[in-house]
Design brief:
This protein is of the alpha+beta class. Helix content is 38%, strand content 23%. The protein is built from four helices and seven strands, in the order αβββαββαββα. A five-stranded antiparallel sheet has the order 1-2-3-5-4, with helices on both faces. Strands 6-7 form a two-stranded antiparallel ribbon. It is globular and about 50 Å long. The relative contact order is 0.13.
Length: 177
C-alpha cells in the first residue's frame, strides 16, 4: 500500500465502502501497462478487488471524462449485446495528493483462436449502436496526456481527420518532426 498516498488511499476506501467492496484495503499490487498514471489492483478486506488508476497530477476533469466515456461504452455494449467486457466505474476522486479512478477489476483472460474474431464482432456491434450519424462526443477528453477535441461531425472520416489526424500532425509539426 506504500504506492498509494495516504489521502488517496483513504478517499478510495470511503468510495469502496459506499459500493459495498469493504472498508479497508488489504493489499495493493502494482500493474504494468500505463505510461502516464499508476495502475494498481486493490484487494479489500472483503476479498473484493478493484482496479485503480491514480496520479499525483492530472488535468482537472481527466478521470471524470474517462469515467463518463467508459460508462457510455458499457451501456452501448450491453444495448448491442456485443459480448465485450467493459469495466464498471466504481468511483473517482481527488485529494491534495492525487486523483484516482476506480474500476471493476477484470482479470486477464486467455487468448483463443476465436478471440480476435469475437473482439472484432463485438466492436462492430458496439459501433452499430453508437453510430447514429453524429460523430463526436458530448465533452472533450484526453489521449494519454494530450487534450483531445471531440467536436461533432456528420461523417466518420470528417471527424477522424479534423479531430484526430490534423491535431496530431500539428503537434508533430510544432515539435519539428
Amino acid at each position: 500500500m506504500s504506492t498509494l498516498p495516504a489521502s488517496v488511499r483513504e478517499s478510495i476506501e470511503v468510495a469502496a465502502a459506499n459500493r459495498g467492496l469493504g472498508t479497508s484495503i488489504r493489499s495493493a499490487a502494482p500493474l504494468g501497462g500505463g505510461c502516464i498514471h499508476q495502475g494498481t489492483r486493490l484487494t479489500f478486506e472483503s476479498d473484493a478487488s478493484a482496479f485503480v488508476k491514480w496520479s499525483g497530477s492530472v488535468p482537472p476533469g481527466m478521470f471524470e471524462a474517462e469515467a463518463a466515456g467508459l460508462a457510455a461504452l458499457r451501456d452501448a455494449s450491453h444495448d448491442a449485446d456485443a459480448g465485450l467486457v467493459i469495466p464498471e466505474v466504481l468511483g473517482s476522486g481527488s485529494t491534495s495528493e492525487g486523483s484516482w479512478l476506480m474500476l471493476e477489476y477484470v482479470a486477464p483472460g486467455r487468448e483463443s483462436p476465436e478471440s480476435d474474431e469475437a473482439l472484432g464482432g463485438g466492436l462492430a456491434l458496439l459501433h452499430d449502436v453508437a453510430a447514429a450519424g453524429d460523430f463526436g462526443w458530448s465533452e472533450d477528453n484526453w489521449i494519454g496526456s494530450l487534450a483531445q477535441s471531440n467536436s461533432s461531425s456528420d461523417s466518420w472520416s470528417g471527424f477522424w481527420i479534423k479531430e484526430r489526424i490534423e491535431p496530431q500532425l500539428e503537434r508533430a509539426r510544432r515539435a519539428g518532426a
